[in-house]
UniProtKB/TrEMBL annotation:
One of its GO terms (biological process) is response to antibiotic. Keywords: Signal. Pfam families: Erythro_esteras. PANTHER family: ESTERASE, PUTATIVE (AFU_ORTHOLOGUE AFUA_1G05850)-RELATED. Residues 1-18 form the signal peptide. This is Erythromycin esterase family protein. The keyword DNA-binding does not apply. The keyword Metal-binding does not apply.
Amino acid sequence: MRLILPILLSLAALSAGAAGPLPVTGAGGDYDALMAMVGDARVVMLGEATHGSREFHRERARITRRLILEKGFGAVVFEAPWEPVRRADAWIRGEGRDADAAAALGGLHRFPRWMWRNTDVRDFVESLRAINAGRSAHARLYGMDLYSVPESADAVVRHVARRSVDAAALARRRYACFDDYLVEPQIYGREVEAGRAPSCAEGAAAQLAELESGGNAGAGEDDFMTWQSARVVRNGEDYHRAMYREEDSSWNLREAHMAGTLHQLLERMGLAGKIVVWAQNIHQGDARATDQAAAGETSLGQLMRERYGEAAVLVGLTTHHGKVRAATGWATPDRVKRLRPAWPESWSGQLHRIGLPAFMLVFRGDAALAERYAASRPERAVGVTYLPHDERNSHYFNVRLSRQFDAVIHIDATTPVKPLR
């Protein structure tokens, strides 16, 4: 009884509040409270506890469609490479050569391709095309990550070649030291930092500076997209080397790059511009409410809060158990793995005890509810790899949930994404 009573009291405290847990049942009004909280916000960050669970894609798709149709959001941004997503963006606007959504996602061929090339993302992309078919102002789709250095370098060269053969030849020379690492760009950073290969740092910076001096950042669509590709090359080059430099945080470089991409998109869209962002919880939440802060790490969500204040809404998605698609190591084959029940003392373990299959907690605007979820507890983060045998060390970090996010959607049992083959 001594053990049971504190648990019951804890559950009563967690379940209480002005709004309390709001069930998610699949009904049209599931996210009415979230829409009300979003208000006139310009940025909505939708997280996920794992990259390989289909329910997270499905619920984010439901929310995103409402944000586009009801709140005027004009772009969706994936935690995916910039250049490969351009094909899908063209397809949802009725452009490009791809026959269907699956083909339009074909540019995402690098590991972990199943993260975005899966049936649920395909269905969402199809829904964006259907929305755009009846609108003059098309919703856009972008990637914000920097894992596409070779593709982005090629895009820059092709764009420059349309204007000057000599300028294209110069761009090729500047990017030539990437040529031996087209299959796996991360190896470039290792070899350069070990002194076994020449660096492209100077050439990548020079190419970006040349495009900026020509006004590409604020120019037409093709010029802007090329400038962003050049940013990916410059920042990606630095990131891949930083992974092998102990004194630098490659994590912070990546977060800053993604935040810069979002800011540039918002600037280009104008004061009325609004974007929805899909990424892992560890990026979307505010790092100041987690162990990351003590380690000197920032996060995308923190950077957006610092820049946009309450115009940025951070939403986490959590799960307790199920099955998940993941790899065992970087660039290794993916497979379906059993997602262990969350540690009982973790936030997902506590949310599981509420006893609902799926529900939402809205912290912003409810001080009493936020206070109940303000303690520091472990929370699980599963990226492209999952190591069940070392879960405590590899996948848990401490968070103050209601400080990390403005709202949380909990889906108790989740299932694995199905890749497009």
